[in-house]
Design a protein that fits this description.
The chain is of the alpha/beta class. It contains 11 helices and 9 strands. Helix 4 runs parallel beside helix 5 and helix 7 packs across helix 10.
Amino acid sequence: MTDPFPDIPQVTIVGPGLLGASVGLGLRACGYAGHLVGVSRTQATLDEAQRVGAIDAGFTEIGPAVQVDGKVVVLLAVPLGRFAEVFKKAAPHQRRGMYLTDVGSTKLSVCAEAKRYLSQPQFFVPAHPMAGSEQQGPTHAKAGLFRGKPCVLCPDDATDENALRAVTTMWEALGAVIHTMTADAHDHQVAAVSHLPHLLAVLLAQTADEIGPLDLASTGFRDTTRLAASNPPMRADIITNNRKPIAEAMDRFASRLNDLRGVVRKGKDEELLALLEGAQEIRRGWEQRRADGAG
Protein backbone atom coordinates (compact mmCIF):
# COMPACT_ATOMS: atom_id res chain seq x y z
CA MET A 1 0.00 0.00 0.00
CA THR A 2 1.15 3.53 -0.79
CA ASP A 3 0.92 6.23 1.86
CA PRO A 4 -1.89 8.55 0.64
CA PHE A 5 -0.14 11.69 1.89
CA PRO A 6 3.48 11.14 2.94
CA ASP A 7 4.01 14.91 3.23
CA ILE A 8 1.63 15.10 6.22
CA PRO A 9 3.36 13.52 9.25
CA GLN A 10 0.35 13.70 11.59
CA VAL A 11 -3.43 13.49 11.67
CA THR A 12 -5.10 14.66 14.87
CA ILE A 13 -8.60 13.37 15.60
CA VAL A 14 -10.60 15.52 18.00
CA GLY A 15 -13.30 13.15 19.18
CA PRO A 16 -12.14 9.58 18.40
CA GLY A 17 -15.59 8.05 18.73
CA LEU A 18 -17.34 6.01 16.05
CA LEU A 19 -16.58 8.34 13.12
CA GLY A 20 -13.27 9.70 14.36
CA ALA A 21 -11.87 6.27 15.21
CA SER A 22 -13.11 4.92 11.87
CA VAL A 23 -11.02 7.61 10.16
CA GLY A 24 -7.97 6.50 12.12
CA LEU A 25 -8.52 2.82 11.32
CA GLY A 26 -9.22 3.65 7.68
CA LEU A 27 -6.04 5.67 7.30
CA ARG A 28 -3.96 2.85 8.73
CA ALA A 29 -5.70 0.34 6.47
CA CYS A 30 -4.95 2.39 3.34
CA GLY A 31 -1.25 2.76 4.16
CA TYR A 32 -0.91 6.03 6.05
CA ALA A 33 2.41 5.84 7.91
CA GLY A 34 2.16 9.07 9.88
CA HIS A 35 1.29 9.64 13.53
CA LEU A 36 -2.37 9.37 14.59
CA VAL A 37 -3.24 11.43 17.65
CA GLY A 38 -6.55 11.59 19.49
CA VAL A 39 -8.10 14.33 21.61
CA SER A 40 -10.93 13.63 24.03
CA ARG A 41 -12.27 15.02 27.27
CA THR A 42 -12.28 11.49 28.70
CA GLN A 43 -9.23 9.29 29.11
CA ALA A 44 -11.41 6.18 28.74
CA THR A 45 -12.26 7.14 25.14
CA LEU A 46 -8.59 7.71 24.34
CA ASP A 47 -7.63 4.37 25.89
CA GLU A 48 -10.31 2.53 23.91
CA ALA A 49 -9.39 4.28 20.65
CA GLN A 50 -5.76 3.35 21.19
CA ARG A 51 -6.70 -0.24 22.06
CA VAL A 52 -8.55 -0.73 18.77
CA GLY A 53 -5.66 0.81 16.83
CA ALA A 54 -7.39 4.04 15.77
CA ILE A 55 -4.79 6.33 17.39
CA ASP A 56 -1.17 6.05 18.51
CA ALA A 57 -1.41 8.55 21.37
CA GLY A 58 -4.00 10.71 23.08
CA PHE A 59 -4.39 14.04 24.84
CA THR A 60 -7.19 15.74 26.72
CA GLU A 61 -6.33 19.16 25.24
CA ILE A 62 -5.89 20.28 21.62
CA GLY A 63 -2.67 22.26 22.13
CA PRO A 64 -0.18 19.40 22.60
CA ALA A 65 -2.05 17.31 20.02
CA VAL A 66 -1.21 19.69 17.16
CA GLN A 67 2.40 20.47 18.05
CA VAL A 68 4.29 18.80 15.24
CA ASP A 69 7.05 19.75 12.85
CA GLY A 70 5.43 20.02 9.43
CA LYS A 71 1.84 19.75 8.30
CA VAL A 72 -1.04 18.31 10.28
CA VAL A 73 -4.66 17.53 9.39
CA VAL A 74 -7.02 18.10 12.31
CA LEU A 75 -10.34 16.25 12.11
CA LEU A 76 -13.15 17.57 14.31
CA ALA A 77 -15.51 14.69 15.10
CA VAL A 78 -17.47 16.20 17.99
CA PRO A 79 -21.20 16.90 18.46
CA LEU A 80 -22.45 20.05 16.74
CA GLY A 81 -23.02 21.71 20.07
CA ARG A 82 -19.29 21.54 20.85
CA PHE A 83 -17.90 23.12 17.68
CA ALA A 84 -17.75 26.66 19.07
CA GLU A 85 -15.79 25.41 22.09
CA VAL A 86 -13.37 23.39 19.94
CA PHE A 87 -12.81 26.22 17.44
CA LYS A 88 -12.01 28.59 20.32
CA LYS A 89 -9.45 26.14 21.71
CA ALA A 90 -7.90 25.47 18.31
CA ALA A 91 -7.63 29.13 17.26
CA PRO A 92 -4.48 30.03 19.26
CA HIS A 93 -2.63 27.07 17.75
CA GLN A 94 -3.50 27.73 14.11
CA ARG A 95 -0.66 28.17 11.64
CA ARG A 96 0.06 27.63 7.98
CA GLY A 97 0.16 23.92 7.28
CA MET A 98 -2.43 23.09 9.94
CA TYR A 99 -5.53 22.04 8.02
CA LEU A 100 -8.87 21.51 9.76
CA THR A 101 -11.90 19.57 8.62
CA ASP A 102 -14.92 17.98 10.29
CA VAL A 103 -17.69 15.39 10.09
CA GLY A 104 -20.58 17.65 11.18
CA SER A 105 -24.04 16.74 9.94
CA THR A 106 -24.92 20.36 9.18
CA LYS A 107 -22.68 22.86 7.47
CA LEU A 108 -24.13 26.39 7.68
CA SER A 109 -23.93 26.42 11.47
CA VAL A 110 -20.43 24.92 11.50
CA CYS A 111 -19.14 27.33 8.84
CA ALA A 112 -20.55 30.32 10.73
CA GLU A 113 -18.82 29.25 13.95
CA ALA A 114 -15.54 28.58 12.14
CA LYS A 115 -15.53 32.11 10.73
CA ARG A 116 -16.47 33.53 14.10
CA TYR A 117 -13.94 31.73 16.29
CA LEU A 118 -11.00 30.53 14.19
CA SER A 119 -8.09 32.95 13.77
CA GLN A 120 -7.44 31.58 10.26
CA PRO A 121 -10.75 30.16 8.95
CA GLN A 122 -9.33 29.81 5.42
CA PHE A 123 -7.58 26.61 6.58
CA PHE A 124 -10.87 24.97 7.57
CA VAL A 125 -12.52 22.72 4.96
CA PRO A 126 -16.12 21.86 5.97
CA ALA A 127 -16.92 18.20 5.33
CA HIS A 128 -19.70 15.72 5.97
CA PRO A 129 -19.15 12.01 5.25
CA MET A 130 -22.55 10.39 4.79
CA ALA A 131 -21.76 7.35 6.89
CA GLY A 132 -22.41 6.23 10.41
CA SER A 133 -24.33 3.87 12.64
CA GLU A 134 -26.79 3.87 15.49
CA GLN A 135 -23.91 2.44 17.55
CA GLN A 136 -21.45 4.67 19.38
CA GLY A 137 -17.82 4.78 20.48
CA PRO A 138 -14.46 3.61 19.12
CA THR A 139 -15.31 -0.02 19.88
CA HIS A 140 -17.71 0.00 16.92
CA ALA A 141 -15.37 1.84 14.52
CA LYS A 142 -14.68 0.26 11.13
CA ALA A 143 -11.81 0.88 8.73
CA GLY A 144 -14.13 0.62 5.73
CA LEU A 145 -16.96 2.76 7.11
CA PHE A 146 -16.56 5.48 4.46
CA ARG A 147 -15.81 3.27 1.47
CA GLY A 148 -18.22 4.04 -1.37
CA LYS A 149 -20.13 6.57 0.74
CA PRO A 150 -20.72 10.21 -0.28
CA CYS A 151 -18.58 12.83 1.43
CA VAL A 152 -19.64 16.44 0.95
CA LEU A 153 -17.04 19.21 0.96
CA CYS A 154 -18.21 22.82 1.29
CA PRO A 155 -15.26 25.11 0.54
CA ASP A 156 -15.85 28.77 -0.29
CA ASP A 157 -13.87 31.37 -2.21
CA ALA A 158 -11.60 31.99 0.78
CA THR A 159 -10.66 28.33 1.38
CA ASP A 160 -6.93 27.66 1.12
CA GLU A 161 -6.13 25.46 -1.89
CA ASN A 162 -3.54 23.39 -0.02
CA ALA A 163 -6.00 22.72 2.79
CA LEU A 164 -8.66 21.65 0.30
CA ARG A 165 -6.18 19.37 -1.48
CA ALA A 166 -5.08 17.69 1.75
CA VAL A 167 -8.61 17.14 3.02
CA THR A 168 -9.80 15.84 -0.35
CA THR A 169 -6.87 13.41 -0.44
CA MET A 170 -7.74 12.10 3.01
CA TRP A 171 -11.39 11.38 2.24
CA GLU A 172 -10.55 9.86 -1.13
CA ALA A 173 -7.96 7.61 0.55
CA LEU A 174 -10.71 6.42 2.89
CA GLY A 175 -12.76 5.43 -0.16
CA ALA A 176 -15.37 8.18 0.02
CA VAL A 177 -17.01 9.63 -3.09
CA ILE A 178 -16.46 13.40 -3.04
CA HIS A 179 -19.30 15.84 -3.70
CA THR A 180 -18.66 19.58 -3.60
CA MET A 181 -21.45 22.07 -2.95
CA THR A 182 -22.35 25.12 -0.90
CA ALA A 183 -23.17 24.77 2.78
CA ASP A 184 -26.74 25.91 2.11
CA ALA A 185 -27.27 23.31 -0.63
CA HIS A 186 -25.84 20.63 1.66
CA ASP A 187 -28.16 21.47 4.54
CA HIS A 188 -31.26 21.35 2.33
CA GLN A 189 -30.28 18.03 0.74
CA VAL A 190 -29.40 16.24 3.99
CA ALA A 191 -32.65 17.50 5.52
CA ALA A 192 -34.45 15.27 3.01
CA VAL A 193 -32.16 12.23 2.82
CA SER A 194 -30.83 12.04 6.38
CA HIS A 195 -32.68 14.15 8.94
CA LEU A 196 -36.25 13.59 7.73
CA PRO A 197 -35.78 9.76 7.60
CA HIS A 198 -34.73 9.80 11.25
CA LEU A 199 -37.83 11.71 12.31
CA LEU A 200 -40.05 9.40 10.25
CA ALA A 201 -38.44 6.38 11.95
CA VAL A 202 -39.27 7.95 15.31
CA LEU A 203 -42.91 8.49 14.36
CA LEU A 204 -43.22 5.01 12.84
CA ALA A 205 -41.89 3.40 16.02
CA GLN A 206 -44.27 5.43 18.17
CA THR A 207 -47.30 4.82 15.94
CA ALA A 208 -46.73 1.07 15.74
CA ASP A 209 -46.30 0.91 19.51
CA GLU A 210 -49.55 2.86 20.08
CA ILE A 211 -51.58 0.61 17.79
CA GLY A 212 -50.57 -2.57 19.56
CA PRO A 213 -47.81 -4.80 20.88
CA LEU A 214 -44.75 -5.21 18.66
CA ASP A 215 -44.82 -9.02 18.91
CA LEU A 216 -45.33 -9.37 15.15
CA ALA A 217 -42.70 -6.80 14.16
CA SER A 218 -39.99 -8.30 11.99
CA THR A 219 -37.51 -7.23 9.31
CA GLY A 220 -39.67 -4.50 7.80
CA PHE A 221 -40.14 -2.79 11.15
CA ARG A 222 -36.47 -3.35 12.00
CA ASP A 223 -35.21 -1.80 8.76
CA THR A 224 -37.54 1.20 8.72
CA THR A 225 -37.05 2.12 12.39
CA ARG A 226 -33.28 1.53 12.68
CA LEU A 227 -32.55 5.26 12.91
CA ALA A 228 -34.87 5.60 15.89
CA ALA A 229 -32.21 3.77 17.93
CA SER A 230 -29.67 6.55 17.30
CA ASN A 231 -28.27 8.76 20.08
CA PRO A 232 -31.19 11.11 21.02
CA PRO A 233 -29.07 14.07 22.26
CA MET A 234 -26.94 13.94 19.13
CA ARG A 235 -29.99 13.78 16.87
CA ALA A 236 -31.70 16.63 18.72
CA ASP A 237 -28.50 18.66 18.26
CA ILE A 238 -28.56 18.03 14.51
CA ILE A 239 -32.24 18.94 14.15
CA THR A 240 -31.77 22.14 16.14
CA ASN A 241 -28.91 23.21 13.86
CA ASN A 242 -30.85 22.49 10.66
CA ARG A 243 -34.32 23.47 11.81
CA LYS A 244 -35.58 25.43 8.80
CA PRO A 245 -34.63 22.99 5.99
CA ILE A 246 -35.96 20.08 8.04
CA ALA A 247 -39.26 21.88 8.64
CA GLU A 248 -39.54 22.52 4.89
CA ALA A 249 -38.90 18.84 4.15
CA MET A 250 -41.51 17.85 6.74
CA ASP A 251 -44.06 20.18 5.12
CA ARG A 252 -43.48 18.56 1.76
CA PHE A 253 -43.73 15.08 3.27
CA ALA A 254 -46.93 16.01 5.11
CA SER A 255 -48.49 17.12 1.82
CA ARG A 256 -47.57 13.83 0.15
CA LEU A 257 -48.81 11.85 3.15
CA ASN A 258 -52.15 13.66 3.01
CA ASP A 259 -52.47 12.87 -0.71
CA LEU A 260 -51.61 9.21 -0.08
CA ARG A 261 -54.17 9.00 2.72
CA GLY A 262 -56.84 10.19 0.29
CA VAL A 263 -55.83 7.61 -2.29
CA VAL A 264 -56.03 4.80 0.27
CA ARG A 265 -59.30 5.89 1.86
CA LYS A 266 -61.06 6.47 -1.46
CA GLY A 267 -59.88 3.18 -2.94
CA LYS A 268 -58.08 4.76 -5.89
CA ASP A 269 -56.27 1.53 -6.77
CA GLU A 270 -54.73 2.71 -10.04
CA GLU A 271 -53.27 5.81 -8.39
CA LEU A 272 -51.96 3.69 -5.51
CA LEU A 273 -50.22 1.30 -7.88
CA ALA A 274 -48.68 4.20 -9.79
CA LEU A 275 -47.35 5.70 -6.56
CA LEU A 276 -45.83 2.39 -5.48
CA GLU A 277 -44.23 1.81 -8.87
CA GLY A 278 -42.86 5.36 -8.96
CA ALA A 279 -41.26 4.96 -5.55
CA GLN A 280 -39.84 1.61 -6.60
CA GLU A 281 -38.17 3.23 -9.58
CA ILE A 282 -36.69 5.99 -7.42
CA ARG A 283 -35.23 3.41 -5.05
CA ARG A 284 -33.91 1.20 -7.84
CA GLY A 285 -32.36 4.17 -9.61
CA TRP A 286 -30.58 5.21 -6.43
CA GLU A 287 -29.29 1.69 -5.85
CA GLN A 288 -28.03 1.49 -9.43
CA ARG A 289 -26.16 4.80 -9.16
CA ARG A 290 -24.50 3.58 -5.97
CA ALA A 291 -23.54 0.33 -7.69
CA ASP A 292 -22.07 2.33 -10.56
CA GLY A 293 -19.87 4.28 -8.13
CA ALA A 294 -21.76 7.58 -8.14
CA GLY A 295 -22.02 7.56 -4.34
